[in-house]
Amino acid sequence: MHYQSIKLEMNDSGYAAVVLNNPEKMNALSSQMRAEIPEAYREALAVGARAIVLTGTGKAFCSGQDLGDGATAASMDLERLLRDEYNPMIQTIVDCPVPTITAVNGAAAGAGANLALASDVVIAAKSAYFMQAFTRIGLIPDAGGTYWLPRLAGTAKAMGAAYFAEKISAEQADDWGLIWEHVADEAFEAHWRGRAAHLADGPTEAYRRTAKALRASLDNNLSEQLTMEAREQGKAGKTRDFKEGVLAFLDKRKPKFEGR
Predict the structure, then answer these.
(1) How far apart are CA 147 and CA 111, in angstroms?
(2) How much of the chain, in percent, has pLDDT values that exceed 70?
(3) Residues whose CB is less than 8 angstroms from the CB of residue 179 and which lie 6 or more positions away in sequence, other chains included
(4) Which of 204, 203, 183 is nearest to 194 (CA)?
(5) CB-based contact 107:52 (threshold 8 Å)
(6) CATH superfamily of this structure's domain 6-200
(7) Mean of per-residue pLDDT scores for the chain
């Protein structure tokens, strides 16, 4: 498929990169881009990607809603916009059956910050930052922001980030638990590509069930979670990758996972 606002790159290591590609607007989220992102994830899965990375071109990852895209503030139906365009985009990433990474190459502001947080793993360049910019224009965090922030960083940090709309450096985001890690700018691309290749070469079913169980734990009590662990572990134990993992351990060699 030909994309206008993003690029889809397939890597020989088995992962795909979905690249936001409107650097002149700091990769602001236009209606076109919001439609193309989930389509690119579906295409990547259709051709066999075993991990998907979301990143951006230029100095920014994503500056949030493209305020120059279509309707004026007075005529903009934000509820419809979120329900019909943003929410399906976020849900596609969250529901992705293979591991997902966001490689935050620069500024991630407004909906762009929360788009970044939708992936399983978030890796940021040291010069990158996150900003819940919504109150600066009289809005509340959306695109999953009110869901991710208190769960990842706690209510106190979530409130401050939302109210004050200040920049959160990659180092701060790492310290708060918003992201997995931050990496020196000069090593950033090689690092996230290595991480993606590692996941693409791994036990895909185990990753999928891990993500499912970890997300469920936020709403389950202990008994419910233990029951879920047993059920998902039982299913993981029937995969070819589990058998290969045990054989490789006994043979003292690196496993060759197939993702099945």
Answers:
(1) 13
(2) 97
(3) 104, 117, 122, 123, 124, 170, 173
(4) 183
(5) no
(6) 2-enoyl-CoA Hydratase; Chain A, domain 1 (3.90.226.10)
(7) 95
Whether pLDDT at 1 is above 90: no
Of 17, 63, 24, 21, nearest to 44 by C-alpha is 17
Mean pLDDT of the region 106-115:
97
Backbone angles phi, psi at 6, to 5 degrees: -135, 170
Residue 77 confidence (pLDDT): 87
Rounded to an integer, what distance in angstroms lies between the CA atom of residue 232 and that of residue 138? Answer: 43
Pick from 80, 72, 103: nearest CA to 197 = 103
Question: Order of strands, edge to edge, in the sheet holding 168-169?
Answer: 60-62, 107-109, 129-131, 168-169
- Residue 198 CA to residue 184 CA, distance in Å, equals 20
CA distance 113 to 110: 5
Q: Report DSSP state, residue 8.
A: E
Token duo for residue 5: 């606002």
CATH number of 204-251: 3.40.1190.20, 3.40.50.2000, 1.10.12.10, 3.40.50.720? Answer: 1.10.12.10
Kindly report the pTM of this predicted structure: 0.93
Find out whether 31 and 72 touch, Cβ atoms under 8 Å.
no
- Encoded tokens for 209: 């069930």
